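Note to self: keep these together.
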Amino acid sequence: LLPPTMLSRKGHHDPSPRREADVEAHHPRHPPKSTARPPRRLLIIAAVACSLWYLCMQYMVQSHAPAAEPPRASSDLDMYSEPPVQRRPVPAVASVPPAAQPSPKVAGSQPTPAVAAQPPSARPQAVQAGQAQAKQDDEAPRCKSDDQFTDCAADLVKACGRWRNLCQSTCTPGCDPAADNDNAAVVLESPHVERVEAARAPEAEPQTCLPFSRQLCPPLNLSLLDNKEQKAVHDSCGKYVKQERNLPSPPRFCGAREGRLNPCWSETAGNGSALSYCLPHFFILGEMKCGTTTVYELLLKHPRIVAPRTKEPRYLQQGRFAQTTLSRYAVNFRRAVETAAADTVTFDASPVYLRSKIARFWLARWLPEAKLIVLVRNPVQRSYSHWKMGYEWAHGKCSDGDMAQRLKEVAELLTFSSIIQRSLVVTYWDRCRQLTGGESAPSGFSLMALNDKRLPPAEQRHLHSPAATLNYSAFGRCLLTQDHDLILEYADELRGAWPVEPLKGAMSRAKHAVGSCSEMMMLPPAALQKSGSYAVELERWARIFPRSQIKVIVTDELTRGSQRIMNETFDFLQLPRMPIGNQSRFCVRGKAGVMDVLHASELNITIGHDTSEHAHLLAPQLKVGDCEPDSGHAHDEATGSDLHRIEPRVQERLRRFFEPHNRRLYRFLGRDLGW
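Structure:
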């Protein structure tokens, strides 16, 4: 409250500018002060800004620090995949040949995860382990030929960690499993197309191109030879097959490509004349028991589609591929050669290709423009059809003799409910083995008994209930979490208390007969695996072929609107639309005309009842007739299909098992099929 003059006399600071000179005059020892000072609000703003900058820097450091991945939960989607592996850093690009580097066209490549720091005491051991692993990678055999394909698309985690060992000219790994578009297709090296005069395939090594004019290996009359003669044939053909599987890069046919819609080549034969050879324009990959025979028959109603020699050449199947030359495979498509029309096409309808790694990479290397057709069907119904065909094969092929007697002794275990539920237990066994360790599930038609390490001591087992016996180990507890009621139904067999003689001995004797007589179709868990792997296999094919080259047909939709589906298929094949008639279902009868038979006696095997009055020979010796449902079948008005009657309890178990697999397929297709 004092006046300003008194404040100045007492030495107090007067903020008034006009009094500054007076203050300095009365206090000469006071240090000089700046006349321009920043306002207090600017100081406050600067302090707040510095604090925010510090907090942002702290957040960025923490967000970029390497963190351990949370444990991955197991699900039904992991049924057919490899167990998770530990990722390792990708080697420096400078140390990798240019051909092995990932293609820039593969979208979504992820950076290599950082390696967590280790204490000084652990570093020497880690360095030694890393050196040993690098040495192992360097010594690993490289994939150089057609019979050593590496399926990088099947396990992208492994591919990203071991990309140096992949087929450099066959597979370029993509490291983004979530990528779901045409650009995510793996880039492969396409065959070199010769536009010059056709040259004859060289007979002597080294062979530099894939020839059509070799001798047929094996010959067409192989099934008429005895075992000793067949072995001699395979031995003599071995050198030709080996030459074809070890061609240098780039892959190249020996002939000159002809200007046709169907892939055909002109190659000089031994007498100097140029001969034409054709391969398929499109492939029906499968899945078997989903209507491949129906699509085969409906396709042949088109005048521009020529039938192959046999419906299922199966050249790219595991066993046949190792023993068959390209010249032998091309024999199946001679009809396409004899047709003069430039837009005539032929095809291969082998339903085993969908699950074939060889088929994926051979087609991508040699026929990268091929069209691919895949059929999918309600997995519960497909499983029943799979079992039914195996059951009919068994009773048609082994109708008398010792084999028939062995099947009769275990007839109660060969019903659909028994086979499919054993398949479920075997599948759950393998799933829990991946989670808890231990040995694999018993293969085929075998007893499912746990080993002693997973059971209480023998002298104490009588004190435990079935559930308590299984709860003794982590493996048993895992089984119970998969399907508690089902596992308890098989608890006596799992703990070794069932079966007893004479059934136990009968099962042992029938093990070979069940597989041999049913063409392996009744062996657990075949029916289950093929019904639950549509999405897995389609994803693998889509990693290599663009989506525009893959056509998925739903069996129920084909039955309900066959003309509409076939019109879409003709458009997909670049052919004009054509009426196909009213019949929308066909079933094959017997082996004749389906594939090259191995024994002459198999020509007379018939599946189901004789329908010769309806049969027609659109392909050589192929017996096709109406599909005959089981007695008491149910007709589904919504889908227009005849459904197999399945025990409700078993059907519900299968529905629960297939549910996650169906969801995965719906994501691939972009729509819900209502299964």
